[in-house]
Amino acid sequence: MAHQHKYDANGKQLCCTLEQKINHKTDKQSGCCSVHNDNEHSDDDGHDHSGGSQTMIQMFLPAIISFILLLLAIGFDNYFPQTWFTGWVRIVWYAVAYIPVGFPVIKEAFESIKQGEIFSEFLLMVIATAGAFAIGEYPEGVAVMLFYAVGEVFQTLAVQRAKSNIKLLLDQRPDEAIVIKEKIAILKKASDITIGEIIQLKPGEKLALDGKLLSDNATFNTAALTGESKPDSKLKGETVLAGMINLNTVAQVEVTTAYTDSKLSKIFEMVQEATAKKAPTELFIRKFAKIYTPIVVLLAVAICLLPMLFVDNYIFRDLLYRALVFLVISCPCALVISIPLGYFGGIGAASKNGILFKGSSFLDIMASIQVVVMDKTGTLTKGVFKVQKVVAVDVSEADLVKWVAALETKSTHPVGTAIIEYAKGTEKNATVTDVEEIAGHGLKGKVDGNEILAGNVKMMNKFNINYDVEIENTPFTIIIIAINQKYAGYFLIADEIKEDAKEAIESLHKINVKTVMLSGDKQAVVNAVAKELNIDLAHGDLLPEHKVEKVEELKLQNLKIAFVGDGVNDAPVVALADAGIAMGGLGSDATIETADIVIQNDQPHKIFTAINIGKQTKKIVWQNITLAFVVKGIVLILGAGGLATMWEAVFADVGVALLAILNAVRIQRMKF
User: Fold this and answer.
1) Catalytic one among 375, 578, 596, 602?
2) Which residues are registered as beta bridge partners of 200?
3) Residue-by-residue DSSP string for 373-406
4) In 3D, which of 279, 243, 298 has the Cα closest to residue 357?
5) For the chain: N or C, fewer Cβ within 10 A?
6) Minimum mean pLDDT range among 247-251, 506-510, 638-642, 664-668
7) Closest C-alpha among 339, 283, 332 to residue 621
8) Mean pLDDT: which of 272-276, 517-521, 640-644 is highest?
């Protein structure tokens, strides 16, 4: 069955590209074959699927053989001449030096032509080097192909390193796990473990599947999932995920998700899929290369033949040499490999920092973000009530906390839970009697013989308790306390601001990104949080449709907007923003589905990190584009004018490609 090219809705070719070839070769070097759909490639698609993984020596061996033979031949030609190294012997020697590096390229050129891709970089190299042999420039013909082959290996190694970095980062599940069955420990393949089975995890071991913690508590390193090495403590009943490392005691986990459906598997698949969703810059370069290559071939023909019509002393050999130099320089390798590799590196760097981009296009978008719009609860605050302040009047703070916490043990209200947590167990020794919950007001009861009233302003008014009226101006939740019919102080309770929220806002302001907070909370509460964090604009008392209106107002100002929220409740706003960012993606499958970018932990400063990675990726991509165009442009002009040789052409092609690839790989080593 003949191969049929595959195209997307925009007419972009999806198969038989240089990037695909390098990616395929990378997979082969890693010991695996890329999986293709039946309609994407036939069995005779021209790819070599033979052999397993190769060592670096094996990858470079053809180039090493060619290089040694070339050095000897140049030595025989110029430094220690040999009488036998002439005529057919010399030609055959150079041909043998050419074959190890030239044959694979010739084969690729024929396969590309068979598949309808005539003007490929392989054909350019074959024409240029064959032409060099035809005019007797054997050393240059071998050198061009040798350096091209070395460049191909470096390209493969660079992509392989980028892929393996992501794979090592994300797919860290062990192959086996200890399962407890009828109090007996059994070593079992992770892929064979079913939902409901219990895994025993020793300190230092990685969890193989997602599950629910059965032990009272355990501490885990979550770096593989969140990019953060700070230990995360889990309590009984809480979710733990594949890839987490148990740090302290032996823990037992009940499996809740199949091996292939774990959160880590989904994250890994998402990162792999992200590399296929190309940024506009990548798509432009691909289209450009497709048009550019046939044009330079025609220009090379023109350089060789047109002077025949206008020059009296036309020398075919000299002008053919110029045309061949022109062809070597024009090869678009530096662009079509280094640019996708730059974006791949950006996605990998983000993954390493616990940020998942759903496509390289979002790296470009984040690089140009001007406004970050944030939800309050769960994004800038923790979404849980915490006691922020205790004021005691005519009673010790310790006694006030102890007695009120003891009273609140008889309530299920979140405010009561916050006070009990704040008391840290001191309430357990108190005696509580005669508890009465007064709806909409608060609690009344006796603790250690003292009558305690704990509630709001209405509660104090109901029992005619005089209190500090300044309390009423506080935007946060206030629990006023009376002991034995006398005002005794208050608890100030609020949603706790995340530790790095202020740092996140400051970092965004430093790069001139405007910050906006939208919330359904009371405007007074929103204003207080905005003031503390120094947020530019804050709007409270908003329903979901009001949030959409606020974002639309910003869009009318032609601003690039990122919205940060939970990705589910705020789905309309996420869809409207240029980039939708979900916080805490580990907790919600729906979040991962909804957002364009997923921050895997709850840290707001990762918003700045995502923008920074986008900016650095875009910077590197444009450095490569500029480098390739400037150097190639200069040497193309010199080559057309006869001022550049094959050696300059080799630098303009392979040298620039290698520099661009090294630059692209650089992002994977950056600290964000």
Assistant:
1) 375
2) 178, 252
3) EEESBTTTEEEEEEEEEEEESSS-HHHHHHHHHH
4) 279
5) N
6) 638-642
7) 339
8) 517-521
CA dihedral 288, 289, 294, 299 (to 10 degrees): 80
Tell me which residue of 481, 307, 510 sits closest to 401, measured CA to CA.
Answer: 481
Q: Which residues pair with 181 in a beta bridge?
A: 184
State how far the Cα of 552 lies from the Cα of 154, in Å rounded to an integer.
Answer: 47
Give the type of residue at 295: I
Distance CA(524)–CA(512), nearest Å, equals 27
Amino acid at 36: H
Whether 216 sits among the annotated catalytic residues: the reply is: no
**Alpha helix positions (H), 79-137:** 87-114, 121-134
Neighbours of 389 (CB within 10 A): 12
**d(C-alpha 55, C-alpha 58), whole Å:** 5
Q: Which pLDDT value is given to residue 76?
A: 93
Contact in structure between 4 and 41 (CB atoms under 8 Å): no
Long-range CB contact pairs, 431-439, < 8 A, 24+:
431/406, 432/406, 432/407, 435/407, 435/410, 437/410, 437/411, 438/462
User: Would the pLDDT of 32 be above 50?
Assistant: no
CA distances from 240 to 256, 355, 586 (A): 10, 19, 10
Q: What is the pTM of this model?
A: 0.69
Intra-chain end-to-end CA distance of the chain, in Å: 49
Tokens of 49: 């699927």
Q: How far apart are CA 17 and CA 333, in angstroms?
A: 11
Q: Dump pLDDT digits (tens) for 481-491.
A: 999 999 999 99
- Which is higher by pLDDT, 119 or 561? 561
What's the confidence (pLDDT) of residue 47?
34
Q: Is the pLDDT of residue 34 over 60?
A: no
Contact 326, 639 (CB under 8 A): yes
* Banded model confidence at residue 120, pLDDT cuts 50, 70, 90: confident
SS3 assignment, position 138? helix
- What mean pLDDT, rounded, does the chain reach? 81
Q: What is the pLDDT of residue 163?
A: 62
d(CA 495, CA 559): 31
SS3 477: strand
List CB contacts of 650: < 8 A, sequence separation 6 or more: 143, 144, 147, 328
Residue where the block lists tokens 């704990």? 454
Each residue of 143-201: pLDDT tens digit? 888 888 887 787 777 767 666 655 655 555 677 889 998 888 889 888 889 999 999 99
Q: Which two tokens stand for residue 361?
A: 């296009």
Q: Which two tokens stand for residue 99?
A: 């074959």
